[in-house]
Design a protein that fits this description.
The protein is mostly helical. The protein has 14 helices and 2 strands; from the N terminus they run αααααβαααααααααβ.
Length: 338
């Protein structure tokens, strides 16, 4: 049918593969199983290259073929074709082992380079096409949320199950004529992968960080940098709640210095510098003095989210520590992978 129109029959066609690619062996059935076997045939020139290119993109923010959604003649040419060929070949030889592929990329000297660059190098190669430095990339909305929950110890590690409804502004679903009843308990802290998705009313926390609308299939996301993103990290109930829980964790350490060092490592994955530590110690001192004099100023930090403190907790101290945790969470060291 021409364009699928019921009253416009055209030339009769049969199941087959594109003429530009290797033909499907006669022994294979012309159905989905045959198609799958043809796609994963070691002689197929495209499947393994497309796959390794997308995993490379996960690490370097850009694929060897930049247009990861189009590796055909209308897409970009590979910047390192021999590397793409080698990765694809070893991927097939490993039995399509994704864990081995990820390990190979992560342990490469290319990936482990410092992401810092001289002004001269940035001028010659601003987008790091030649891989002369390590990747630098902001974490996705899902990663930012999951990282905050994991660092605070709130993250629910359960795998699988139905979608969950975490915090979001009330009334957001009114236009859909469906009620949004927020979950509680452990469901609030499931990984972002399980957040319920509605195309007409997407989760605002994730949508602000360029999450796909899922109207079409996307292999790479647009990446923006807007004031709204900073407002989400500073004010979203999930991040405030994670901050106050980390603030309580800091009180369990023998000294405030050790508490800050621990939370910094949890959020950023690296050791804190002396200069950063001194600034955060000063910040905590100022905030603690303020909250101790006027406890009402601390309530915004302590009442957000469902987490409840014990009656013996030093609430002004926890609130001051929460400010410190939030400051670390909003720093470039946390939100950007370098």
């Amino acid at each position: 049918l021409e364009r699928g129109q019921y009253d416009a029959p055209g030339e009769e066609v049969f199941p087959n593969t594109p003429a530009s690619l290797p033909p499907m062996p006669e022994a294979l059935p012309k159905n989905r199983l045959g198609l799958a076997k043809w796609l994963t045939d070691p002689k197929h020139p495209l499947t393994a290259r497309v796959a390794v290119n997308r995993y490379w993109q996960n690490f370097f923010n850009k694929g060897i073929v930049e247009t990861s959604e189009d590796c055909g003649n209308q897409g970009s040419l590979p910047t390192h074709p021999e590397l793409l060929d080698w990765l694809a070949t070893t991927f097939i030889e490993s039995g399509w082992d994704l864990k081995a592929l990820n390990k190979r990329i992560a342990m490469s000297s290319t990936y482990q380079q410092d992401s810092k660059a001289t002004d001269e190098l940035r001028e010659i190669d601003p987008t790091n096409v030649w891989l002369a430095r390590g990747p630098s990339k902001r974490l996705s909305g899902e990663m930012l949320r999951d990282n905050a929950l994991l660092a605070s110890g709130l993250l629910n590690p359960k795998i699988g199950g139905e979608s969950v409804k975490p915090y979001q502004p009330s009334g957001l679903w009114k236009m859909t004529h469906l009620p949004y009843k927020r979950d509680d308990g452990e469901k609030l802290y499931r990984r972002s992968l399980y957040t319920i998705w509605k195309r007409t009313a997407p989760n605002p926390t994730l949508a602000t960080f360029d999450a796909s609308t899922r109207e079409i299939c996307m292999t790479r996301r647009q990446e923006t940098n807007t004031p709204l993103q900073a407002l989400v990290l500073l004010n979203d109930p999930t991040y405030i709640e994670a901050s106050k829980v980390m603030g309580k964790k800091m009180t369990a350490f023998p000294s405030l210095k050790e508490g800050i060092e621990d939370i910094y490592m949890r959020l950023t994955g690296k050791q804190i510098t002396e200069k950063e530590l001194d600034l955060l110690l000063q910040l905590q001192k100022v905030e603690y003095t303020k909250f101790e004099k006027d406890f009402n100023k601390a309530k915004g930090w302590l009442e957000s989210g469902d987490f409840v403190f014990n009656k013996n907790d030093n609430l002004p101290m926890i609130a001051a520590n929460a400010v410190v945790a939030s400051t670390i969470m909003n720093s470039d060291a946390t939100i950007t992978k370098r």
